[in-house]
Design brief:
By secondary structure, the protein is mostly helical. It is built from six helices and no strands. It has one domain.
Length: 125
């Protein structure tokens, strides 16, 4: 019985977070090297925002413990960057879409509040 309780208190390694973080770091480093002129990927690497879209869709496909889903920001950012890279939008004129999305997110969270987290007893901490 005591073993089961201690297993619940041990922090779990967030493998998904490690993989996503490593992919983002690799992507950022690659883009930085491309923009610095050290490597040349333009033309072959135009569709890199699909990585963000894919990560968002993976996160959206899984429900959290409280029933909510996350990943919408990844999809939004990936689609926005992709549309800017292929020339449908321009960064200079499309950045207000981020403000619209932030406002929409605030409204959504106000209409659908998170379930309250259970409180811990001082004895169990």
């Amino acid at each position: 019985m005591e073993q089961a309780v201690s297993d619940e208190l041990e922090p779990r390694v967030n493998t998904e977070g490690i993989v996503i973080g490593a992919v983002i770091m690799l992507l950022g480093g690659t883009i930085m090297l491309d923009r610095a002129g050290i490597i040349h990927l333009y033309g072959r690497f135009v569709f890199w925002p699909f990585v963000l879209i894919t990560l968002g869709l993976i996160k959206l496909s899984k429900r959290r413990d409280d029933g909510r889903r996350e990943g919408g920001w990844w999809v939004f950012l990936g689609v926005w960057l992709l549309l800017n890279d292929v020339g449908v939008l321009a960064f200079r004129t499309s950045w207000p879409l981020i403000l619209v999305a932030v406002g929409g997110s605030i409204v959504w969270n106000a209409l659908h509040p998170r379930a309250p987290r259970p409180r811990r007893n001082a004895e169990n901490s």
